[in-house]
Amino acid sequence: MKSRTTALALAGLALGATLTGCKVSGTRTNPGGSGATPGAAAGDGGGAAQGAGGGQGTGGGAGALDRCHTAGLSARLGRLDGAAGSRSSTIVLTNTSGRACRVYGYPGVGIAVEDGSALPSSDQRVGGPPPHLVLKPGGNAYAEIDWAAPGGADPQSQSEAALPRLLTVIPPDETRALRAPWSFGKVAEQGNFRVSPLKPGAGPA
């Protein structure tokens, strides 16, 4: 009787071990168990990678660069053109900051006397849309400007014209102005300038 009880006990242990082995094997291959968890992790990881990649992509373009600030730019005037009461030239901005920067839009333009005191003036934006520009160290962007010159045979036009000594230039998104020497004579129409958006390069030679 004792031998039979022992045999039954051993048979029960063997059956339990067999069932336990089946359960462990099922956990390892269950597509709804551990298989689902790596899938979710991969999805999270893929989303994070795409987000980081998008940021790095933006970083490689103009969007991640700081904009060009007044303190890191210089301004000069190009050659004088025009006739019959109309004058034109270019404003050339040069990146002097030692690092690349981005610029977009129109410069603000005004006129002043030798000490920087402003004369009455206004600017009107023409052309566009502006391109997005990246200025490397030493790189240039230019805007075209035109204005009215006083008529030689019109005394009133001559008397009302302003005689600036400086052109003041405010880079896009800035508040401080650069100064460029002005040697183009009087400006009529209360100092009204028509200004194009900034473009790459230094403009016409």
For the structure shown, list the relevant keywords.
4-stranded antiparallel sheet, signal, globular, 205 residues, 3 helices, 6-stranded mixed sheet
Describe this structure in words.
It is globular and about 50 Å long. Helix content is 29%, strand content 27%. The termini are far apart. The strands form three sheets. Strands 1, 2, 6, 8, 11 and 12 form a six-stranded mixed β-sheet that branches. It has 205 residues and is an alpha+beta fold. Strand 9 (166-170) and strand 10 (178-181) form a beta hairpin. This is DUF4232 domain-containing protein. Keywords: Signal. It holds the Pfam family DUF4232. Residues 1-20 form the signal peptide.
Per-chain topology:
Layout lengths: L1 H28 L6 H25 L12 E5 L8 E10 L5 E3 L4 E5 L5 E2 L2 E4 L7 E3 L4 E9 L6 H6 L5 E5 L7 E4 L10 E4 L3 E2 L5
Keywords: Signal
Pfam families: DUF4232 (PF14016)
InterPro entries: DUF4232
Distance between the termini: 116 Å
Which stretches are low in confidence, meaning pLDDT under 50 for 5 or more residues running? 1-60
Query: Biggest β-sheet, characterized?
Result: 6 strands, mixed
The SS-based structural class is alpha+beta
Mean pLDDT: 76
Number of extended strands: 12
Helix fraction, binned, reads: 25-40%
Order of helices and strands: HHEEEEEEEEHEEEE
Global shape: globular
- How big is the Rg? 37 Å
The number of helices is: 3
How much of the sequence lies in strands comes to 25-35%
Q: What kind of oligomer do you see?
A: single chain
Quick structural gist:
Residues 1-20 form the signal peptide. Helices cover 29% and strands 27% of the residues. By secondary structure, the chain is of the alpha+beta class.
